[in-house]
TrEMBL record, chain A:
<keyword id="KW-0808">Transferase</keyword>
<feature type="binding site">
    <location>
        <position position="134"/>
    </location>
    <ligand>
        <name>carbamoyl phosphate</name>
    </ligand>
</feature>
<dbReference type="GO" id="GO:0004070">
    <property type="term" value="F:aspartate carbamoyltransferase activity"/>
</dbReference>
<feature type="binding site">
    <location>
        <position position="263"/>
    </location>
    <ligand>
        <name>carbamoyl phosphate</name>
    </ligand>
</feature>
<dbReference type="InterPro" id="IPR006132">
    <property type="entry name" value="Asp/Orn_carbamoyltranf_P-bd"/>
</dbReference>
<dbReference type="InterPro" id="IPR002082">
    <property type="entry name" value="Asp_carbamoyltransf"/>
</dbReference>
<dbReference type="GO" id="GO:0044205">
    <property type="term" value="P:'de novo' UMP biosynthetic process"/>
</dbReference>
<comment type="subunit">
    <text>Heterooligomer of catalytic and regulatory chains.</text>
</comment>
<dbReference type="InterPro" id="IPR006130">
    <property type="entry name" value="Asp/Orn_carbamoylTrfase"/>
</dbReference>
Automatic annotation (TrEMBL), chain B:
<feature type="binding site">
    <location>
        <position position="140"/>
    </location>
    <ligand>
        <name>Zn(2+)</name>
    </ligand>
</feature>
<dbReference type="InterPro" id="IPR020542">
    <property type="entry name" value="Asp_carbamoyltrfase_reg_C"/>
</dbReference>
<feature type="binding site">
    <location>
        <position position="137"/>
    </location>
    <ligand>
        <name>Zn(2+)</name>
    </ligand>
</feature>
<keyword id="KW-0665">Pyrimidine biosynthesis</keyword>
<dbReference type="InterPro" id="IPR036793">
    <property type="entry name" value="Asp_carbatrfase_reg_N_sf"/>
</dbReference>
<keyword id="KW-0862">Zinc</keyword>
<dbReference type="Pfam" id="PF01948">
    <property type="entry name" value="PyrI"/>
</dbReference>
<feature type="domain" description="Aspartate carbamoyltransferase regulatory subunit N-terminal">
    <location>
        <begin position="8"/>
        <end position="100"/>
    </location>
</feature>
<dbReference type="InterPro" id="IPR020545">
    <property type="entry name" value="Asp_carbamoyltransf_reg_N"/>
</dbReference>
Length: 304, 155
């Protein structure tokens, strides 16, 4: 990786992705070989929003590399509560650690924070913006199941606010992928993301109905439609119900369709799908550790 | 309309800058972008919605005793892409500039995305990259196309 930080999926070239995924495969094949790679190093976990999977998998990844983590704790218990700016917070924290992982509710937070620190900074989600490390583990999962070329992927759910979708669709433009976006009209991809896809010459189609495209798909990436996006409870239930999949829905799919989800899910994938060969979302979540180990290994060795 | 009529509306200046062919109605935004609010003591004349062969209606701004540089006027391209700049010395036009789209504008616009970090209380200026048909926030990626003047942070 030639980057000091990982802030946005826009930074990730095909070569960058392949480098991280290859390193992740090495980690997965022989975790013991990486056990002491970063002994004595500290990674700061700065999560201004709740997180389970991302935070714990970064924590596990750093510890499995022989390093350790220091955790800012919740916003309620930190100096942020006293009105400290994010810029000041990260400037202080970089003095405590060899790298910073940042999740923040504002779009662009990681990009701004990186202007104030010299240690590697990783964006672990910025509002409705980007979530590039989720994308790396998504791509790792796709590569393990289907491969990253000659891919037809459907991305369904909340495409407007879903940062995992924004990052994934951006990076997929570097691969031979046909991207179908399935959502209610009100939750279409934002203009900025559509602009990028258009600029990149991506093969993109938008749909409101999964049935139109399901039989073609190699991968179906489902995201959660959040209740708070709808002013009216009834409208939420009507819309969310149209973007829910169960075993019956999947009868129209290819036998080897891979179903993914960044999790947490609520009820957009029926539990009965878990027992089918399509379901890869738990494996996808587990891949977070080797992929984040690989990313941290590459970023921290750059700084040596 | 004769030249005399035009002179009556906006008189000639001896030294300074004439910004002509400004999109009708944008003259005050031009002054805001240039940071000219009268506090510096400059004499400023404005013609608004003056008939124009090229634009139908145009604004004209004349600023005395101040010569604007290319980099100062380039940001005007976002709201007045047809603007022409005449540098005047002793009543003669000594230099004509056209506004060119800059690659990036800093501190000039406010991101319309209220959740963008550039709108939080952080020690950074807004930053927009100029793209084909608009500008794009360098922090959150939001694109502004048709209504750029509505997002001026200086007005």
């Amino acid at each position: 990786m030639r980057h000091d930080h990982l802030l946005s999926a826009h930074q990730l070239s095909r070569a960058d992705v392949e480098e991280v995924l290859s390193r992740a495969a090495e980690v997965a094949a022989d975790p013991a070989a990486f056990r002491d790679r970063h002994a004595g190093k500290l990674l700061a976990l700065c999560f201004f929003e709740p997180s389970t999977r991302t935070k714990m998998s970064f924590d596990a990844a750093m510890k499995r590399l022989g390093g350790d983590t220091v955790d800012m704790g919740s916003v309620e218990s930190s100096s942020v509560k006293k009105g400290e700016s994010l810029a000041d917070t990260v400037r202080v924290i970089e003095g405590y650690a060899d790298g910073v992982v940042l999740r923040h509710p504002s779009e662009g937070a990681a990009t701004m924070a990186a202007e104030f620190v010299d240690v590697p900074l990783v964006n672990a989600g910025d509002g409705a913006g980007q979530h590039p490390t989720q994308t790396l583990l998504d791509l790792y999962t796709i590569r393990e199941t289907h491969g990253l070329d000659d891919l037809t992927i459907g991305v369904m759910g909340d495409l407007k606010y879903g940062r995992t979708v924004h990052s994934l669709s951006t990076v997929l433009t570097n691969f031979d992928a046909r991207q179908h976006f399935i959502s209610p009209e009100s939750l279409r991809l934002p203009r900025g993301v559509r602009f990028d896809l258009h600029e990149a010459g991506a093969q993109v189609r938008e749909h409101t109905d999964l049935d139109e495209v399901l039989p073609e798909l190699d991968v179906l990436y489902v995201t959660r439609i959040q209740r708070e996006r709808f002013p009216d409870e009834n409208e939420y239930h009507t819309v969310a119900g149209q973007y829910r999949i169960d075993a019956e829905t999947l009868e129209a799919a290819k036998d080897d369709l891979t179903v993914m989800h960044p999790l947490p899910r609520v009820d957009e994938i029926a539990p009965e799908v878990d027992d089918t060969d399509h379901a890869r979302y738990f494996e996808q979540a587990h891949n977070g550790v080797p992929v984040r180990m690989a990313l941290l290994d590459l970023l921290l060795e750059e700084g040596e | 309309m004769s030249d005399t009529d035009k002179q009556l509306r906006v008189s000639k200046i001896r030294n300074g800058t004439v910004i002509d062919h400004v999109t009708g109605g944008q003259a005050l935004n031009v002054l805001a972008i240039l940071g000219i609010d009268g506090a510096g003591g400059e004499s400023v004349s404005i013609g608004m919605n003056v008939p124009s062969d090229r634009l139908g209606r145009k604004d004209v701004v004349k600023v005395e005793d101040r010569e604007l540089s290319q980099s100062e006027v380039d940001v005007l391209s976002l709201i007045a892409p047809e603007a022409t700049i005449n540098i005047v010395r002793d009543y003669e036009v000594v230099e004509k500039l056209r506004v060119e789209r800059p690659e990036r504008v800093t501190g000039l616009l406010t991101c319309p995305n209220r959740n963008c970090i550039s709108n939080a209380n952080e020690p950074v200026d807004s930053r927009f990259d100029v793209v084909d048909d608009g500008v794009r926030c360098g922090y959150c990626g939001t694109i502004v196309r048709d209504d750029i003047a509505d997002h001026l942070s200086v007005s």
